[in-house]
Amino acid sequence: MLPPPIPSAAINLVAERFQAIVDELRREAWRIQPYDEATAMRLDDAATAFSDAGTSILQHWLRDAGILPPR
Fold first, then answer.
1. Count of alpha carbons within 13 Å of 51, Cβ hemisphere only?
2. What are phi and psi of 65, to 5 degrees?
3. Does the model's pTM come out above 0.90?
């Protein structure tokens, strides 16, 4: 069974925006890594944490929408 189109489109948009932020954090980490390794590592850690949080938020949203089964 496919999700309704409107929630599906909204979920995809949110997922894309989360991924865009993660990608930007990682690009910045790569850019500054040669001269500021500590900050680059913190940015990479932030990207990982943001990605994990986004995944969790999206999973809750999918469960609330009935797209994923409850735990």
1. 13
2. -80, -5
3. no
51: burial class by Cβ within 10 Å (0-12, 13-18, 19+)?
middle
**What is the DSSP code (8-state) at residue 6?**
H
Residue 63 near residue 71, CB atoms below 8 Å: yes
Query: For residue 2, what pLDDT is reported?
Result: 61
Confidence band of 64 (pLDDT split at 50, 70, 90) = confident
Q: Which of helix, strand or coil describes residue 50?
A: helix
The tens digit of pLDDT for each residue in 35-57 reads 999 999 999 999 999 888 888 88
Q: Are the beta carbons of 24 and 44 closer than 8 angstroms?
A: no
